[in-house]
Amino acid sequence: MNCVNKLLKSLGEKTTLEKDEFSEYIAFHGIGNAYSKRWLANIVPADLLKLSVKDAVNIIATLCESTIFYKKFPDNIETPNYGDKWGRLANYIEINDRAIAYMDYGCTCKGILSCIKLLPAIPPSAKSWANCIILSQIWQNIFGDAYEKGPFEENSIYGIRLNAPYSDNIIDYSITKKISPEEQLKAFVDLAHFRGLKAGFRHVISADQIKVSTKDGDVTFDWCNPEHQELYIQECVKLVNLGFECMFIDSAKHIGGYDCENYTGVGSLPEYPQMQYILNEIRLRTGRSDLSFVGEKSSDDFERYRNLGLTAGTDFITGDNFDAVRDLSERLKYSRDYAPGVEITNDNYCGGLSYEQKLNRINTALFGYYLASDKLPSFMQTDDLFPLRYDTNTHHIMMTNPSYSTDGTALSHWENLFAKDDGRDYNRRTGELFAWALER
Question: To the nearest whole number, what is the mean pLDDT of the chain?
Fold first, then answer.
C-alpha cells in the first residue's frame, strides 16, 4: 500500500477519493497553454488547515494537471522531471511547518499533516522551471520540541538534534503504530510530487547548534569527529531516500571560514573540502544526480560556491529592480550549474515591506529574464504567499513558537496566525502573478 493510502487508513479514512467540485469551480488556472495547471488562491491558510487530510487529498486529486481524476491515489509517483539541473532555475518556497502545526492546549504536533492540507494552495511549477517547497523543520529542535512557548521565549528552529526520532512538532505520533514517521514524510513528498512540486528541507550546520542524541544524553556535534560527520551524511541520505530532493543549508556562505566576521551562527563549520566530500557522498549514496543544494547567503563568490557543489545561493539581489535582475540573468545565462538567487524575503525577515513591495519582488522573480530558460532561482517564505498577522514576522516564528489561539484550539491558532481580509486579497494577487508565469 502506498504511503498516502496508508496515511488515510491510519486516520480512519477510506482510501476511495471523491471529486471536490467546489475547489474545481474556484481554482485558479494558468494562463494560455498552462490552463490545466490549477491551485487555490484568494484564500487564507485556515480555509484549508481546518479541513481533514482526506478532504485535502480529495482536492489534490481534483486539481490534477492531467485532468484525470484518480479514485484511488496512484501507487507510483515520480518527481516532476525538470532535468538534473532543475535547482538552478527553481522558485524555493519555505513553509514553516511548525508554525502551521496543530497547537492544542500547549502542545505542538502534526505539522506534516498541515503541510499536506496547504499543498493545494501552492502554485504549481511552470513549463520551464519548478517550484520547490522547503520545510523549515523535520528533525527535533533542542529548545523545547512539541511544546508552544510564550511569544518572547526562545524556542528556535535553529537548533537540531540528530540520531533521534523526527520532530514531535511535525510527526503525528498518535498513529505511528499504523504508519511510521518516515511513511508520513513520504506521503507528503508523494502528494507534493503529484502536485508537480519539488520538496526539500532546511537545516543548520553550525556545530554548537546541533546535538547528537546518545544513550548517555546529548553531546554537542563536532565536525572533527568522523562519527558525527558520518551521522550527518546518513541523516541527510535518509531524507533524500524518502523523496526529498533539495537541502537548504543555513550559514553555507561561511563554510571553510569564509567571511566569518559576518557569521551569526554558533560554533564551528565544516571545512571547504569536507563539505565538498559530504555533498558528493549524499549524491553517491542516494544515486541522485538531480539533487539541489542551496546555500544561505552563498552568492558573492560564484565560483567558490559552484565548486563547493551548491546549486543556488540566496541573498544576492532582491526583486526591487526588475532591470537589474534581468541583466544579471542575461549575464549568468551560460552558468548552468549554479546561480545566485532573487530574494523576496528570507528567514531573517522582521517585517517592514509593504504588500506592494513584495508583489513587485515576486513579479521580478517570475519575469526578470529575456528567456525563461535563463531565469534566476528565487526564494520566498510562507509570509510571501500567506501574509502573517501584523504583530509577528517570519524571523519571530522561526525563533519562538507561540500560539495565537484565543481559546486553546488549533483552529483558532490558524485563524489568528495569518492576516485576514487583506491577506486573502494579497494571496489573490500573488495567484494572478503566478497564473501569467506558468506557461513560460
Answer: 96
Closest CA to 139 of 177, 171, 101, 100: 171
Q: Determine what percent of the chain falls in helix, strand and coil, rounding each to the nearest 5.
A: 40, 15, 45
Q: Region 165-194: what's the mean pLDDT?
A: 98
SS3 193: helix
Pick the closest to residue 385 from 174, 95, 149 (CA basis): 95
The secondary structure element, H or E, covering residue 67 is: none
3-state secondary structure of 294: strand
- The model carries a pTM of 0.97
Cα(311)–Cα(340) distance, integer angstroms:
9
- One-letter identity of residue 157: I
Angle at 220 between CA 347 and CA 254, to 5 degrees: 45
pLDDT tens column, 129-143: 999 999 999 999 999
- Those residues whose C-beta lies under 8 Å from the C-beta of residue 305, and which sit 6 or more positions away, are 252, 295, 298, 299, 313, 338
Contact 373, 334 (CB under 8 A): no
Contact 129, 341 (CB under 8 A): no
Which three-class secondary structure state does DSSP give residue 103?
A: strand
The Cα–Cα gap between 304 and 140 comes to 31
Buried b (16+ CB within 10 A) or exposed e, 238-275: ebbebbbbbbbbbbbbbbbebeeeebebebebbeeeeb
